[in-house]
């Protein structure tokens, strides 16, 4: 039991605290300085994220604090660094875009910061209550940024839809959490697990399903994905890039921690749920993306599919599986950020274009951009020796070692179907009748695209430290 | 030295090939304008497919249409044409000189069989095949024939092809062919021989289709290739049988053990029958002979040779008269130690050879295309050679091969000169009266004709008469059959040869005035080969008979050829009655007189005769309907099966259920899934709740 009189050890949560204080200071600063401060706030926000990375990586000790509801272990450390990096890239990618699109507000980086704090809390949460706190903090920030372009009807629609459905999912999650608490008498993961060793009741299983449904909504796994295409399309593209990257990673980390820490004794139960949503996500992600003409919607289905593949690793319920999930999320995030950097640079005559067909002839007007984008598409399709191949390799390998052959086969088949729409983009860029060239991309997008391209193309050469680190992170649960 | 003989042509081919490649790159700088050559190829091939007509047979109708040898006048000549010509011709010249040196050392001299190792090649289990040159009299005879004719043809081609834009490619192919042919004749094992065999087939294919922008040339080259595949299939099976029986494909090993295997119970198991001992060897020999039939255009695999005349005329002279088509004869002679143990196979060879000699001669009687007449003549003469092989006189066959190479190459090159003179016209009905305008060609062609028809003391007189005598000496049913057919064929040969001369050079000119104005004697570079070959056609027989057939036989051949036990044919040939040895001369005179009567004295007779015997004429004119028969039996069913498998099997079944079907289903699913995304919040919420409900239900029932 937590002793309220004892002041908790704050050092494991130092990054969150720094970020929170910094975010509030930036907010105050922005309010005082007005709209002109956006540039400064953006730069400071990125710096703050870098500081947080340093703190997570080097300063904070690995420990459990807040009476066992906050945990900083190797897994949390790894995922937090990835999430912080993803948020940092997402903020920097928005700079030119937000100015051109006319929603350059200092609140935007601050909101991302607050969302990032939520993500860090999600990653570290080892208690149902801290889990919910982190999740809601991140979600609330996300609802607002989805509608940040409030003069734009589609943006506000996206924000509203996201909010309403998010509220519904939160309700499910809370309902599930209350059932779990009711049937185990614990909110802390350790406690829940210790009770489940003695068997589980039907009520607990129902609670588990609701809990997982709530989390599945956050990673947009089928059938809780319905918001994704609409929100991805409606939200400003920079925001979509953010949604597709760090929050997904954080929510996946949360899911991993919940099932591996709290529900380890009933692996067979949650495995069924995860396999189900994994298969649904992979299949739907592959098939539905083929029908899309809007590149942002296409990326939405792509992310649904990729969440399915990542869940294949989780279904294995083994250290290798978790390692696969970690690698998958990191690789996916880096590829998707690169892809969005390219999408953000699809600008013609002062307006954004989002039609897949408008990529035609990119190979002639901007050969390098087209090449990197093509490499990213090949990587997303999972073609060796690019990064995306190894991501899929590790999760499928884990599934096979866990004797989940059917799941692995479905995964491979749906990735074949999925390859179609990735390769179609390459085909459009290289072989279709050229359209007018895009405006040159701003430097930050080119930088992100370059980094992402290097990551995808040369992953083979620096994968081993990453794989080892992911392996160590995965050992946190075993 | 022997390696030099073989590999100098290869060097030439490679150099000319490099010139071709770099020349092509230079002709299309940047490659932006498209690679003209390749485009043409695809066009031509594409149109073949587009027709849907039986392409292998496609030009049977075109036989009757006047052919033109199309030089590409519009395209600038490839860079380095001159260099390619000089390099290849010079290298071959050296090679030819060395071959003659080898001939005098090994054949006329006293060198026994020896081998020149080149490199180790295949070592796989029992199968050992090293690259070794086998040099004996048979080899050097072939070396001389191949390299001499090839050099002369190279030389001739410099003149003949001077208007063509793609000369480097042409000379590269020619030299490549020569190399492959040399590989074939110097082979020391079956695999090496097969390598050369296929190499000449490839070169033949490339050269027949040299003018690839002409659909008829493309289909002719494909036809040659495909018909040869049939023969090669047999040849391969033969090689496999040899390996099964002997456990080796090395010539020395195989030849040394034929007697042992024939007496043993080593067996081939084919279609439920066991063939052991001699029967097994007979089977192997027949299979090997099948390969020879394909390459040497024997009935029923002869159909490709006349069509092969689509290639440039020097090619016809080199490949489709003097060298490659004799590969089958060479092969049977080379393998005479094996065939000696297979009398049944030899009998088959005799019958096929004699029949081909007769059959091709009958067709030659009525053809109008100057090159086709000579092509059928070639086919017929090859039949003579096989008849001689069959009756157990390989030395006579090789002797005829040797003399035939000279006079047939001469005839083809003369035909080329004629075609060249009359502006690429090949139809003899549009020639006539050329005697005075191109006298040198005329004389050379007369010499070639005399040699072919066996005028006394010319080359053919010795070799062809020796073949006829050998069949008589062999006797029996088979010998008698061959004897009769070959004699009849000799009359026909004389007739169609003189017919060719009369139609082309005598009578009133039948070509257009414009063509006549342009008629001119060929340049010296084309005439020199004619001189040399004329000398060969006149003297090869009289000089060779002593070595090849008569007194010097043993000292010349040494042990290169092996005859079966109890083969008395050489003695028997010495004692043929006078009427037999004088018969060919009589036949030659008959043929000449009839031709003279038909085409000089009484030019209306042929047309009347053709009208009176319309059926027979049409039968011969359409080449015994072999092409039509094959078209009906093989080509059309094959096309039908191909079309069926393509449209129904691949298109409908595999593509339908496979790629197309799957992708169509994928699209169906996609469309259905996309429709779920309505944009309404309550639908989305509904889906989420249904999902949860489903999962809860599932978990409740599976717990």
Automatic annotation (TrEMBL), chain A:
The keyword Lyase does not apply. It catalyses: a quinone + NADH + 5 H(+)(in) = a quinol + NAD(+) + 4 H(+)(out). InterPro entries: NADH-Q_OxRdtase_suN/2 (IPR010096), ND/Mrp_TM (IPR001750). It is a multi-pass membrane protein. The keyword rRNA-binding does not apply. GO terms for biological process: ATP synthesis coupled electron transport. GO terms for molecular function: NADH dehydrogenase (quinone) (non-electrogenic) activity; NADH dehydrogenase (ubiquinone) activity; quinone binding. PANTHER family: NADH DEHYDROGENASE. NDH-1 shuttles electrons from NADH, via FMN and iron-sulfur (Fe-S) centers, to quinones in the respiratory chain. The immediate electron acceptor for the enzyme in this species is believed to be ubiquinone. Couples the redox reaction to proton translocation (for every two electrons transferred, four hydrogen ions are translocated across the cytoplasmic membrane), and thus conserves the redox energy in a proton gradient. This is NADH-quinone oxidoreductase subunit N.
Automatic annotation (TrEMBL), chain B:
Residues 121-171 form the NADH-Ubiquinone oxidoreductase (complex I) chain 5 N-terminal domain. Pfam families: Proton_antipo_M, Proton_antipo_N. One of its GO terms (biological process) is ATP synthesis coupled electron transport. This is NADH dehydrogenase subunit L. The keyword Disulfide bond does not apply. It comes from the Bacteria. It is a multi-pass membrane protein. Residues 187-485 form the NADH:quinone oxidoreductase/Mrp antiporter transmembrane domain. InterPro entries: NADHpl_OxRdtase_5_subgr, ND/Mrp_TM, NU5C-like, Proton_antipo_N. GO terms for molecular function: NADH dehydrogenase (ubiquinone) activity; NADH dehydrogenase activity. The chain crosses the membrane at residues 6-25, 86-108, 137-158, 170-188, 194-212, 233-255, 275-294, 315-333, 339-366, 373-391, 397-419, 440-462, 482-505, 526-549, 578-601, 681-701. The keyword Transmembrane helix applies. Keywords: Membrane, Transmembrane, Transmembrane helix. Its main location: membrane. It is found in: Endomembrane system; Membrane. The lineage of its organism: Bacteria, Pseudomonadati, Pseudomonadota, Alphaproteobacteria, Hyphomicrobiales. GO terms for cellular component: endomembrane system; membrane.
